[in-house]
Design a protein that fits this description.
Mean pLDDT: 86
Strand content: 15-25%
CATH architecture of the largest domain: 3-Layer(aba) Sandwich
Number of domains: 2
Low-confidence stretches: none
Structural class: alpha/beta
Oligomer: single chain
Helix content: 10-25%
Radius of gyration: 17 Å
Number of strands: 10
CATH superfamily of the largest domain: P-loop containing nucleotide triphosphate hydrolases
Number of helices: 4
């Protein structure tokens, strides 16, 4: 979180040589932050997008002119996101997806490990630790719920380096060993 993933996604969309009617942007239905019809960065950048509940809902949105599909928060797109993206790619449509590698417990987040294997290009962005400003590879979530999926802002999440993530996670159950 707070590394600029969505900012990068919006930048790639804006830099694309394709016309707007040749590009499709989607975001998960559960992301109700900011604006329902736009992908929004924490810094205020926006682009129009469809909200969908699962990856399979991309299919009816595709047209004969679609050349690129942009997916924000891909880790929330459901169990078939790998298959959907693979099939879209097999139809010569470029897929650009942004998502969190690890959850707040430092475990692979949903489909992300498999998606990285499917990728033809990977762009990794890093946040700064909320405490010391060093590069942050971890998402720290304030205690309160053990639910895996809790959509929130800086009131509940922080980017942290390994040292400060471990300090914050001390005493919590099932902490994964950072890789």
């Amino acid at each position: 979180m707070f590394a600029g993933k969505t900012t990068k996604l919006i930048g790639l969309y804006n830099e694309s040589p394709f016309m707007n009617d040749e590009k499709l942007a989607v975001k998960p239905l559960l992301d109700q932050r900011y604006n329902a019809t736009r992908i929004n960065s924490h810094g205020g950048l926006q682009m129009l997008a469809h909200r969908i509940g699962k990856a399979e809902e991309i299919y009816p949105l595709l047209t004969e002119t679609t050349r690129e599909v942009y997916i924000d928060e891909v880790q929330f797109m459901g169990p078939y996101v790998i298959e959907v993206i693979g099939e879209i790619m097999m139809n010569n449509i470029h897929v650009i997806a942004a998502g969190l590698d690890k959850d707040y417990m430092a475990r692979d987040f949903g489909p992300m490990a498999a998606l990285k294997k499917l990728a033809t290009q990977r762009i990794e962005v890093k946040a700064q630790c909320h405490i010391c400003k060093k590069p942050a590879n971890f998402t720290y979530r304030e205690p309160g719920t053990d639910d895996l999926v809790v959509v929130g802002h800086s009131d509940m999440y922080q980017a942290r380096c390994e040292e400060h993530w471990l300090q914050g996670m001390e005493g919590r159950k099932e902490i994964s060993s950072p890789a």
